[in-house]
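Field reference: sequence -> structure
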Amino acid sequence: MLNAGHFVYPLDDPYIHMAMAKNFSQHGVWGITKYGFTSSSSSPLWVLLLSLVYLVTGPNEAALLILNLAIALLGLVLVDRLMARRGLGPWSRLWVLCGLVVLIPLPATVLTGQEHVLQSFVSFLFLWVGAEAVAGLGPKFNRLLVGLGFLLVAVRYEGAFLVAVVVLLLLLRRRTLLGLALAGAALVPIAAYGILSVSQGWYFLPNSVLMKAQAMRNAVHLIRAGRAHPGFWKGLANLAGFWGLRQVATTPHILAPAAAVLVLLVIRLARRGASLAVDTAAGLVFLVVVFLHMQFAGPGALHRYEAYLVGLGIAAGVLLLRGLTKDRANDRPLMITVATIAGLAASVMLWEGAWVMRQVPRWTNNIYQENYHMGLFLRRFYQGEAVAANDVGAINYLADIRCFDTWGLATMEVARLKARGRLSSEALEAMAESAGVRIAVVYEDWLKLTQTGAVPARWSKVGCWSILDNLACGCDSVAFFACRPEEQARLKDCLRQFSASLPRAVVQTGAYVSGQ
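Structure field:
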């Protein structure tokens, strides 16, 4: 049986939310450990929702799956009701709902255990209602739109892309009150969390946003390169937008709906003029949001970061198809054209969605073999002790450790040095020593990516676990280091005791295996 009967998520990231929700629900601490605040998630509402579930059920691994399934079912119902109220017939609604399920793809997104299912449905509803507001429909103060804007950003900070575009169009259309109200509602969760974070000595934005944003990496590259460096012009081109366009061009499941919506939008404007109707507004918003997301965020593993873009593409495509074919059922060339465009785009997204679904079991097995057993090992032998790590989700959910994060997601001192370009192996060793770290369970290659360039000199490598056919884990191998000379013997003994608990596919090497 795959994963020895354990239910395991295909990524380490959902375990970050689970660890934070566990600590918030049980100890009142917003952090990846119970020992202090950490700004480790850009999805505060998702952590809150899971915390509420844990208050009732206690921490458990099935909660995220059940929560995502419930949200998916509710989302499909709400989308269906919205379309029914807007005059779409039952067959049209059925096709749209099926598209959402298989093209996102919804089953795989549910299994990631993250907030992207909720984000996708809120984004779909927001785009539809927002396009109507931009077109001048609905009340002057649309409470539904304002509420969805607040929810969208609270679910995930990337929702700010979508809200910003709609706000700009509302202001250009002189719907000033609604635009300002929407902007204010979207800023509330960012400001509230930012004030809390700063009061705890962290950055205004979550570390996950600052450390993963492509725009930040480009900007840092640009500043460091200097005008005389040949990399300056490459960095400038990236910041000017070429990075985003390249990302779109190399991401088929985003390129397909973007290209389809662009062609349909051009046909729509050519046939019916340049009026900013609901369908044209939706198409325009979608295309701009695709560019912004790919420029400043980019795609994610198992297509999870782009799931909401696929939902937006479906919403924009439906509105454009409806606008083009309304009262033109007898226009055979037009019907053939739009059907071909929609079919080609759907085929590409379906192929990509099927690929993701096929990958999920293998990804869960990777996480089970490596991250999950790292957590079990630490829970058995190092409970309550200081441990250095650079993939911090599963280990902090499964074990109660004082986590020193060498990547900087959950340790502010590391994040500050990384931001300044001053993180070295010597600085990392000094901080770990100050934190009382006894062992490190890290990906050696990641230490180089954190600008240290090498493993700290005093850390002694005791063993290594390696997995085959890795897709999900940060590296194929995770290394175990004794950060103090007196810890070597104990770490070797602990690894030997645990070795029989590892899956047979995990290859064990190092001093604890050879008996040195």
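Note: DSSP finds 22 helices and six strands in the chain.
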